[in-house]
From TrEMBL, chain A:
Listed name of the protein: Electron transfer flavoprotein subunit beta
GO biological process: carboxylic acid catabolic process
Single GO term (MF): electron transfer activity
Family that this chain belongs to: Belongs to the ETF beta-subunit/FixA family.
Listed GO CC annotations: cytosol
UniProt superkingdom: Bacteria
Cofactor(s) in the UniProt record: AMP
Signal peptide segment: none
Membrane-spanning parts: none
Pfam families from the UniProt entry: ETF (PF01012)
Keyword annotations from UniProtKB, A to Z: Electron transport, Transport
Organism classification: Bacteria, Bacillati, Bacillota, Bacilli, Bacillales
Function: The electron transfer flavoprotein serves as a specific electron acceptor for other dehydrogenases. It transfers the electrons to the main respiratory chain via ETF-ubiquinone oxidoreductase (ETF dehydrogenase).
Automatic annotation (TrEMBL), chain B:
Catalytic activity: a 2,3-saturated acyl-CoA + A = a 2,3-dehydroacyl-CoA + AH2
Name of the protein: Butyryl-CoA dehydrogenase
Keywords, ordered alphabetically: FAD, Flavoprotein, Oxidoreductase
Boundaries of every Acyl-CoA dehydrogenase/oxidase C-terminal domain copy: 231-377
Domain Acyl-CoA oxidase/dehydrogenase middle: 122-218
Cofactor(s) essential for the protein: FAD
Family, as annotated: Belongs to the acyl-CoA dehydrogenase family.
Top-level taxonomic group: Bacteria
Length: 257, 380
C-alpha cells in the first residue's frame, strides 16, 4: 500500500507563547509535530505493518521542519518529503498548502492519506478535506477507528462526542482524532536509523509552481493572545434572581447577548 | 567550537523528556513514599533502547554516544532521582565495564541482555570497611580447579535485588611488592551462595534499589574474570570516571527541576501584595540557580564530549560530578526556601529533590574524593 501522512510542524501551545509586532516570537518557542499528526503517523505505521507497503510523511515547511520529519522517520515511517517554501512563500494559508500538496500528489499513486484533525496552531481543519476534494477522492474527518479489508474501509468517527460508523473505499483521505491510537515514542534504535532514511527536499520550482500560484487567499489582520483569565464570580441569592443577574451580566459586561 | 546538539541528540532528549514527563513524573512521589523500585518503567525504558544508549548495535546497544546518554540521564533525574540513579548505575556500572573490558563471549552472554534492556546489572565495589578506600577490599576470590571461589561482603549496591549479574571486585592475589591485586569477576545472581538483602531505609533515592550482598563460597567459572587480572583496580577507576559523568548529569537534572519549580512558584506566590518574584532577594536566588545549572550542564557535556572523542576526561568528569552534585543540593535547598512552608511538604516535591540530591555528593566517589582526583591530576 502507498500510505501518505500530512504532517505540520507547530509551536508547542503548552509552552509560553509570546507575540511581538503581530507575529508569534519564534525565538525560544518549542516546535513539535502537530499532536493530531502524531496519531496519523502512528496509524500509518500500523497500516503498513498489517498490510505491507510504505509510509511517506509529507510536510510543507522550512529548513527547521527536518527535525519533525526525522522524528516521524524515527517512529517508523519509511520516507520523508519536505516541500521547503522558506524562500518562496511569505505568508501562506490553507489555500497555499493545499495547492502545493495537490501539485505534489499529482503524479503519485495513493492508497490512503492520513492527516491530523486540525493543526493546533491555526486549527482550521481544512487542509485534509480540501486536498481530498482536489484529488477527487473520498475523505472522512475526525476518525477514531480504522479497519481496512481489501478495498473496503470501515471507519468510526467522532461527531461531537458521539460515534458514527462510515463505510467507504480506497483510495481515501482521513483526518485523525484523539482516541484513534496511542502514538509510540521514537525508540533509540529508531532515532539512529532515521539518519539513514531518505528525506527528499523540494521547492516550488520542482513542483512546477510559481509564487503567484500559491499566494494566500486570506489576509491575517491581527494576532493577539486571549485575555488573561480572571477569577470567576459566584452569584448568590434566590435562583430566579441569580438567573436575572446572569442574563443582565451577559448583556452588559460580557456583551455576548 | 560548536555548542549545538546534533539532530539525533536533540531527538533523544525530546523523546526522553516526553517519556519522563508522561510516564515517570506522575509516579515520582509514590516511588519515593513507598520506596518501591519501578521495575515496569525499566522494562519500558529497555524497550525504547534507553539502557543501551552508549553501546554499539553489535552488543545489543542503540549506537548513541555519551552526550546522548548524559542528556537522557538528566531528563530522567529531572522528574525522579530514584529512577535516575538506578538508570545511571545500570548503564555506567552494570554494563559499561563489560563493554570496555569484556571478551567477545562475555559481551554476547552478559552485555547483550543488559544493553538491549532485557535485564539489569550491578557493580559491587563498596564493602562495609572499604568505601572511599576501594584498595581496602576484603572480599577474596581464590582459584580452585576451573573456578573462582568468592567470599566476602558488599554493601550499598544499586539494583542488586533486580540484577541478572553483579560485577564483584575481589582480591585475587598479591603483586611482587606484596600489594593486593584486585580483579573484577562477573557473578550471576542465581549462583548458589549469594544472599542479597535490601533492608536499607534511605533518606533519598528511596525507589532506587540498594542492597547488601553476602558471598559464601560462591563458585563461578574462571572465564568470568573481567578484563586484565592484574589491572582490576585501574579498570574500575576508568569505570568510575565514566560513571561520574552520568551522576553529574543526574545532578543537572535535579538542579534544573529545582529551578523550574522555584521559578514557577515565585511567579505565582503573592505576599505583601505582589509576586515574591518581584523581590530582589528571590530574584538573586533564581539568578544564581539558573547560572549554576547552566555551568554544570556545560561541564557535563564537555566531559561527555571528551569521552566521545576518545580524549582524556578524568579531570573534567570529576569537575562535573563535584560541581553538578553540589549544585543540585544547593538548588534544591534554595527551591525549598523559595517555597516557604509549602516547600517543606512532600506534595511540592522540592524537599524530595534535596534528599535525592544529597546522594549524588556521596555515590561514585564523595565530593572529597573528587577533589582528591582533581588534585592528583596536577601531580599532587
Ligand atoms: C544509595 C547508594 C547507592 C550506592 N550504589 C553503589 C553501587 O552500586 N556500587 C558500589 O560499589 N557502591 C555503591 N554505593 C557506595 C558508595 O559509592 C560509597 O558510599 C561511597 O563511595 C563512600 O564510601 P563510604 O560510604 O564507605 O564512606 P567513607 O569512605 O567511609 O567516607 C566517609 C567520609 O570520609 C571522607 N573521606 C574518606 N576518605 C577520605 C580522604 N582520603 N580524604 C578526605 N576525606 C575522606 C568521605 O569523603 C566521607 O565524607 C552506594 C551508596 C549509596 C548511599
Ligand atoms: C512545620 C511547620 C510548622 C509551622 N508552625 C506554625 C505555627 O505553629 N503557627 C503559625 O502561625 N505558622 C506556622 N508555620 C508557618 C510558617 O511560619 C510559615 O511557613 C513561614 O512564616 C513562611 O511563610 P510562607 O510559608 O507563607 O512562605 P512565604 O511567605 O510565601 O515565603 C516564600 C518565600 O518568599 C520569601 N519572601 C516573602 N516575602 C518576602 C519579602 N518581602 N522580601 C524577600 N523575600 C520574601 C520568603 O523568605 C520565602 O523564601 C509552620 C510551618 C511549618 C513548615
Amino acid at each position: 500500500m502507498n500510505i501518505y501522512v500530512l504532517m505540520k510542524k507547530t509551536f508547542d501551545t503548552e509552552e509560553k507563547i509570546q507575540i511581538d509586532g503581530g507575529v508569534i516570537e519564534e525565538e525560544g518557542a518549542e516546535f513539535i509535530i502537530n499532536p493530531y499528526d502524531e496519531y496519523a503517523i502512528e496509524e500509518a505505521i500500523k497500516i503498513r505493518d498489517d498490510h505491507g507497503g510504505e509510509v511517506t510523511v509529507v510536510t510543507v515547511g522550512d529548513e527547521e521542519s527536518e527535525q519533525q520529519l526525522r522524528t516521524a522517520l524515527a517512529m517508523g515511517a519509511d520516507k520523508a518529503v519536505l516541500v521547503n517554501t522558506e524562500d518562496d512563500l511569505e505568508d501562506g494559508d490553507q489555500y497555499s498548502t493545499v495547492r502545493i500538496l495537490e501539485a505534489y500528489f499529482e503524479d503519485k499513486d495513493v492508497d490512503i492519506i492520513l492527516a491530523g484533525n486540525v493543526a493546533i496552531d491555526e486549527a482550521s481543519g481544512q487542509v485534509g478535506p480540501r486536498l481530498a476534494d482536489k484529488l477527487d477522492i473520498p475523505y472522512v474527518t475526525t476518525i477514531t477507528n480504522l479497519e481496512i479489508g481489501g478495498e473496503d474501509v470501515k471507519i468510526v468517527r467522532d461527531v461531537e462526542g458521539d460515534e458514527e460508523t462510515v463505510e467507504t473505499s480506497l483510495p481515501l483521505l482521513v483526518t485523525c482524532q484523539q482516541g484513534l491510537n496511542e502514538p509510540r515514542y521514537p525508540s533509540l534504535p529508531g532515532i539512529m536509523k532515521a539518519k539513514k532514511k531518505p528525506l527528499e527536499e523540494l521547492e516550488l520550482d520542482d513542483l512546477d509552481l510559481d509564487e503567484d500560484d500559491v499566494e494566500a487567499k486570506t489576509e491575517t489582520v491581527e494576532v493577539f493572545l486571549p485575555p488573561e483569565k480572571e477569577a470567576g464570580r459566584v452569584l448568590e441569592g434566590e435562583t430566579e434572581d441569580q438567573v436575572k443577574e446572569l442574563v443582565s451580566l451577559l448583556k452588559t459586561e460580557a456583551k455576548v447577548l | 567550537m560548536n555548542f549545538e546538539l546534533t539532530k539525533e541528540q536533540e531527538m533523544i532528549r525530546k523523546m526522553v523528556r516526553d517519556f519522563a514527563t508522561e510516564k515517570i513524573a506522575p509516579r515520582a512521589i509514590d516511588i519515593d513514599v513507598n520506596a518501591k523500585f519501578p521495575e515496569d518503567l525499566f522494562k519500558e525504558m529497555g524497550e525504547l533502547g534507553l539502557l543501551g544508549i552508549p553501546f554499539p548495535e553489535e552488543v545489543g546497544g542503540s549506537g548513541g554516544d555519551t552526550v546522548s546518554y548524559a542528556l537522557a540521564a538528566e531528563e530522567i533525574a529531572r522528574v525522579c532521582g530514584s529512577t535516575g540513579l538506578s538508570y545511571a548505575a545500570a548503564v555506567s556500572l552494570g554494563s559499561s565495564p563489560i563493554y570496555y573490558f569484556g571478551t567477545d563471549e562475555q559481551k554476547e552472554k552478559f552485555l547483550k541482555p543488559l544493553a538491549s534492556g532485557e535485564a539489569l546489572g550491578s557493580f559491587g565495589l563498596t564493602e562495609p570497611n572499604a568505601g572511599s578506600d576501594a584498595g581496602g577490599t576484603k572480599t577474596t576470590a581464590k582459584i580452585d580447579g576451573e573456578d573462582y571461589v568468592i567470599n566476602g561482603e558488599k554493601c550499598f549496591i544499586t539494583n542488586a535485588s533486580y540484577a541478572k549479574q553483579i560485577i564483584v571486585t575481589a582480591v585475587t592475589g598479591k603483586d611482587d611488592r606484596g600489594k593486593n591485586i584486585i580483579s573484577a569477576i562477573i557473578v550471576p545472581t542465581d549462583t548458589p551462595g549469594i544472599t542479597i538483602t535490601d533492608n536499607y531505609d534511605k533518606m533519598g533515592v528511596r525507589g532506587s534499589n540498594t542492597a547488601e550482598i553476602v558471598l559464601e563460597d560462591v563458585r563461578v567459572p574462571k572465564e568470568n574474570l573481567l578484563g586484565d587480572p592484574e589491572k582490576g583496580f585501574k579498570q574500575f577507576l576508568y569505570t568510575l570516571d565514566g560513571g561520574r559523568i552520568s551522576i553529574a548529569a543526574l545532578g543537572v537534572g535535579i538542579a534544573q527541576a529545582s529551578l523550574d519549580k522555584a521559578l514557577e512558584y515565585a511567579k505565582e506566590r503573592k505576599q505583601f501584595g505582589q509576586s515574591i518574584s518581584n523581590f530582589q532577594a528571590i530574584q538573586f536566588k533564581l539568578a544564581d540557580m539558573a547560572m549554576e545549572v547552566e555551568l554544570a550542564r556545560n561541564m557535563v557535556l564537555k566531559a561527555a564530549w571528551l569521552k566521545d572523542q576518545g580524549k582524556n576526561f578524568t579531570k573534567e568528569a570529576a569537575y562535573a560530578k563535584l560541581f553538578a552534585s553540589e549544585t543540585a543540593t544547593r538548588n534544591a535547598n534554595e527551591a525549598i526556601q523559595i517555597h516557604g512552608g509549602y516547600g517543606y511538604m512532600r506534595e511540592y516535591e522540592v524537599e524530595r529533590y534535596l534528599r535525592d540530591a544529597k546522594l549524588l555528593e556521596i555515590g561514585e566517589g564523595t565530593s572529597e574524593i573528587q577533589r582528591l582526583v582533581i588534585a592528583r591530576q596536577f601531580g599532587c
